[in-house]
Amino acid sequence: MNPQIFTVLSEQNRLDIVELLRAGAKPVNEITARLRLNQPQVSKHLRVLADAGIVNAHHIAQQRYYQLQQKPFKELELWLDRYKNIWNERG
Amino acid sequence: MNPQIFTVLSEQNRLDIVELLRAGAKPVNEITARLRLNQPQVSKHLRVLADAGIVNAHHIAQQRYYQLQQKPFKELELWLDRYKNIWNERG
DNA sequence: CTATTATATGCCTTGACAAGTATATTCCTC
DNA sequence: GAGGAATATACTTGTCAAGGCATATAATAG
Q1: Cβ of A45 < 7 Å from strand D?
Q2: How far is the C-alpha of A76 from the C-alpha of A36, rounded, in Å?
Q3: CA of A34 vs chain B CAs: smallest distance (Å)
Q4: Contact B22 A82 (CB under 8 A)
Q5: What is the number of other CB atoms lying within 10 angstroms of the CB of residue A8?
Q6: Across chain B, where does the E strand assignment appear?
Q7: pLDDT of chain A along its 91 residues, tens only?
Q8: Cβ–Cβ of B22/A83 closer than 8 Å?
């Protein structure tokens, strides 16, 4: 797992964006409106999320639709799996 | 889920401590030695981890053994479960 | 190709937080 | 209960990242 995911999701607005994108791909202006953030900040957060591989984007007209990517979530799941049974084995 | 867990685990030394504690409860001086950190920093990180409910401690002689707690990991797992099937449903 | 919408980037300021160092506290042993 | 080992806290300092605002780039429509 890339530990970067914790850093990226530790920022509340980014976490909110991720939660919002669970419902499907959304353009920047919709994210901006829903979360009541300023547009540049949303773009910056999306940049961070994209750099971490958590989202990617595609164009529709002038809009950029951002969408969640599976990989980092799968990786986080694998990381978390390693913590599942350690309490059974030890006190 | 408490989003605080992302903040807490976003710090590399804290993540290292958590990984180390997978092997079982350990006293502060052992963590300090293994991770080559200064003792006050380890105590501070453990404080943050404890405040987030990720570890707790018990005494054995003068030592404090720190141990992982299940709850935050379970909660993270539940949070992550919500991301499992969204890619099947949507493109 | 120009205007317009949509999004991205640059720069600055500010706040949060981790490290370093010194010191305080806790707990045991004798 | 005094000394010492183990751990916690206080204080300072430096770094980094997020927000605000201005502006640049991208993309489309007409």
Answers
A1: yes
A2: 29
A3: 20
A4: yes
A5: 22
A6: 26-27, 55-60, 63-68
A7: 898 999 999 999 999 999 999 999 999 999 999 999 999 999 999 999 999 999 999 999 999 999 999 999 999 999 999 999 766 544 4
A8: yes
